[in-house]
Amino acid sequence: MWHDGREVAVKVQYPGAGEALTSDLKQIGRAARLFAGWIPGLDIKPLVAELQARVAEELDYSLEAAAQSRFAMAFEGDPDIVVPAVVAHTDTVLVSQWLESDRSLARLIADGTQEDRNHYGEVYVRFLFSGPARAGLLHADPHPGNFRILPDGRVGVVDYGAVARLPEGLPSIIGTLMTYAVADDYERVVAGLREQGFIKDSIDVSADELRDYLSPFIEPAMHERFQFSRGWMRTQFARINDPREPGYTTMLKVNLPPEFLLIHRVWLGGIGVLSQLGADAPFAAILEESLPGFASPS
Description:
Elements: E1 2-3, E2 6-12, H1 17-35, H2 44-57, H3 61-74, E3 81-82, E4 86-89, E5 93-97, E6 103-104, H4 105-111, H5 114-135, E7 137-139, E8 147-149, E9 155-157, E10 163-165, H6 172-182, H7 186-196, H8 207-218, E11 226-227, H9 230-241, H10 246-251, H11 261-277, E12 280-281, H12 283-290
Parallel strand pairs: 3-9
Antiparallel strand pairs: 1-2, 2-5, 4-5, 6-8, 7-10, 8-9, 11-12
Helix pairs in contact: 1-2, 5-11, 5-12, 6-7, 7-8, 9-11
């Protein structure tokens, strides 16, 4: 579509989207009440309330336009990232600068060279982790289809409906606890998680249990470079989803405070995309740049 002589992308909310969302959110609330007693460590009601609030925001294109504009300003002139400017918007229509692209990270997952997988995987995760410090926002939809490869080699990032508002940047406690974990000081990790509400007072989790549960996920931050792979990711999720494995029991003891919900989504989603790409990335260095409180083992 063209607007004022410019080619633009138009995002339009379909009629009845609000009513459909309201129905879906009610279903989420009912399911939460049903399953709340099955996971003793999880305080599910505030988590569902946070999810409902964030999902509802995705239908407000004025909020999305504001978030996209903040990212566009923060990344203006960046050598690797392009955020399309907002041309016009209403509550239900969003008009953005057109980005010329015929492939995305999803396409690279299917047929990209290893060199491209490494390069664009690094650009991708650097954008995700640097957003809070640069824009005060976390892009919270890490789907690879939202990351478009432009003809000049830069990455165009679209879809700002889901964001976490982090005006102070990523919480430093995440970096601090990761530093303890990398140093194998899981007694301090347990204490820190309790203090932040990740482990409720009524739940007993030992340092050894937490080490077995978390250390494989910490592994990428323990090396100068880490080779992500589908096999590695499958192994980690098998550990925590198989009731026969000790990681499954520990998972049921861990809470997720609502303010960390979207951070958790981006963290797992980002690592999942790196694993699908099979990217070799300097993950520890990226964390040291963007995650306050984190110090790499080197």
